[in-house]
Every structure is written in structure tokens, then in C-alpha cells.
């Protein structure tokens, strides 16, 4: 029997910690078992297929395969436990990116090298990252169980399993703190933990979180659809040069002309104003193209306008727009993430071509995604009061030049959380959730701006030391590589003094930000 999404979600929310407790939230004292004898705890509707626990140099490595009832899924959980003498007394759950929930091996290794007991899960969808698993093989039926595993359930079960193993391996009398770290889909995974399983983690680091998946993912194809509709054949560097024109116009609005737009909300550059203006391509750049002299086309202006203002239909924005210094070639690239979602999850036709849609049909497609999947993988539930009351601290950051996940989606989420927790519990969002912005930084890094140095340590200091971060230490990339700066937290935005010193100033734009309402027919 195949369960519907609502039934699956309700059942998943019943899964809770299964390891012993003293009643005070701390694991019960137990004899410490050797690595090879570690066993995961019993969980509702979970059957363990295989448990491999083996000592390695400096650690215990545990791989667990499990399945749920008769679903036929095959989920792998990996847990690395450093030797007791090297353990820092903390557990760290790690997330993935795109259609992958699992962290990279290098991320696990880095965590263990810093003393963390670390874990991740492939959620039963593997690490290919194609999204092929969205449809059951040989059918046009969405695999509801696989989607639930990916969206939320596997991350939670991994957390419960790993924490039980940590408790067993190091001796249950020793209390420990639990942290999450992830970016993009990994950031989404962490915030879903706070939304659905508010006691799983003491601290959550969520970089460039892919929130409102049901909406931003299909809407992310609109720039590419417009480019295709226009039959755009411009030189490869035209969109790069168009972005450079925006930077030239808006760079100094933050007080410092440094090639970075730190005040994108103040930028009013109109790409139509440079149509007919000459520019030069000194190198082919992305895709095909020939060096030479050109003039900006009206087609390129239209493409840039869509990227910077977003698509809409009958007054309803599809989703938030991108910052003015986001890579326009990246914004309008046919994202495999979006293509797989639209073709497989929404239209259930692997060969589906979104470029065949006019604006009305494209809107209907995004609306359909919202109707089908907002409750499954929307990942944007604003009521974090249960997590906040538990004591969970959430540190998030987003690059203002992100070409994959619009930074305004994170601004939107913070605004909705602030309103929700204030109304539901009289809580101040800044006591438990802090969001920092990184000017000139792309998706989870890249770009030329200051990227956070060690946001995880800042989170630990907040959780364990009671020191909420006012700013976030960061280091420039690109031409200014090595230059240090501190990032501002919302509702503040950066402005710069004449000597280049950054000042964090309350932003009326952020403080009065109006979140987008759901789409409606």
C-alpha cells in the first residue's frame, strides 16, 4: 500500500529519540561498548538491514543500512566517532547539497579532525544528485517515500541514531551538545530539523538555505525560459558585462567603490538604459563566443531585468529576484535541480520541456508545485517557538551575490519567523535566530566578497558560552583575498566609512520587509 504525503508526514513526526535517558534530558549511564559491538537504537517502522562498526586509526567508523516497512527504500547512515581522548564533547550532523542529503567525505573528515563525533545520511537517494529518484522506476508515479526520506525523515532518524551511538560509545553519563551544519540543501535540512523536530539540535548552522523548495525550485527556471523564448544568441560575455554595468551604477551606494554591491536593495539600475551601448568581449567566457566589439541588446536587457526583478503573473511574483551582482549566466542557466523538479515531481514526465510554457502556463506549473509539495518539502514553517523554547540557536548566512538561491528568500523567512514567534510565544527572533549577509559572495561561497571564516565556532560560542554573535568574522576572496571584515546581521546591512571600515546600520528595507504570500489561482 502506498501512503499519501499527509499520512507519511504524520507518521514521520512520531519518530523520537529511543535511547535511554535519566529524565533530565541527559543520556543514562551505561558501560562503554567497544566499537565493533555498537548497535543503533530501535525506531518506529525502521528495520536495520546491516550494521558495520569497525575501529579505524583514531576513530570508530559505523555504517548502518535501514529500510522502512515495505517501502523498499535503502537508507545509509554513516557515523564517525573519534577516540575518546580526542572527542570534544559534541555531535555534528552534516548535510548535503542539491538532490543529495549526504555530506562529502571531506566534510566528515574535517569534523572528526576538529574533535566532533559526526554523521550524515544519503536518505536512500544516493549521491548522484540527478533527482531521477523522484519518480518510481518505469512509472509516472512520484516516489512519496523517497521524497519524504529526502525532505526530512532521514535527517531526523540519522540524528537520533547518531546521538544514541555517541551516548553509548563515550559513556552515557557524559552530556554532550548537538550541532548541525549544512549549506544550500544542507541549510534546508537543518532548518527542517528546527521546524519538525525541535529538540534534535542545540545549535543549527544553515548557510544559503534552499527554503521554500516547492516555489523557488520551479521558479528558478524562469530566467532560462525567457532566454530561450527570446532566442537569445548574444556573445558569451554580454551578460557578464551587463552585470558589470549594474556594479558600476550601484557599487558606491554602500559608501565604498570596491566592485561589490553591498546595498542591492538600493540599486535602481535599469538594464534598458544601456541597450545600444558598446562593450568588448576580450575572451569567449562561458559558452561559445568570439572576442570582439559588440553593443548591448534589448534581449540581454530583458534577461537581466527578469533576473533582478523576478518573474510574475497577474501581479503575483513567482519568487524573489536575485541580487544585482549575482552571476547572470548562472541565474539563467538551465539548472538541473529545477529541471528535474519540474519534469519529474510536478509534471511527472522526464522529457518535459519548460521552455514550451507561456507565462500563464509557467505560473500554473509553479502553483501546482506549491499545491502538491509545500507541506512535504516547503521547509519554510515559520513557527520555531518550540525549538527556541528548547534553547536551540540558529545561525544562518547568505551571500548577496548568490545566483542559485536568492538571498531574499532567507530575508523573507526571517521576517516570517519573527512575526510567528512574537505572536505565538512573545519571543524575540534575535534571541535565537541570527542571519548574516555576505556582500559579493555567491552560493555557499565563491565570488569576491568576504566569506565567513568559522561560523560553526561562532555558533558553539553562542550555545555554550552564551555569546550571541553581533558580527561574523569573514575573509575576502578574489582580488582582495586575505582582507578581513565582519559581516552584519539582519536587520542591519553594511555601509562603509571613507577609510573602508564597515558599519552595520539598521535597514528600513529589512525591518519593513513584507514576505511573499502564497500563490493563488
From TrEMBL:
Its EC number is 3.1.1.-. Keywords: Calcium, Carbohydrate metabolism, Disulfide bond, Hydrolase, Metal-binding, Polysaccharide degradation, Serine esterase, Signal, Xylan degradation. GO terms for biological process: xylan catabolic process. One of its GO terms (molecular function) is feruloyl esterase activity. It comes from the Eukaryota. It catalyses: feruloyl-polysaccharide + H2O = ferulate + polysaccharide. InterPro entries: AB_hydrolase_fold (IPR029058), Tannase/feruloyl_esterase (IPR011118). Residues 1-20 form the signal peptide. It is an enzyme of class 3 (hydrolase). Belongs to the tannase family. PANTHER family: FERULOYL ESTERASE B-RELATED. This is Carboxylic ester hydrolase.
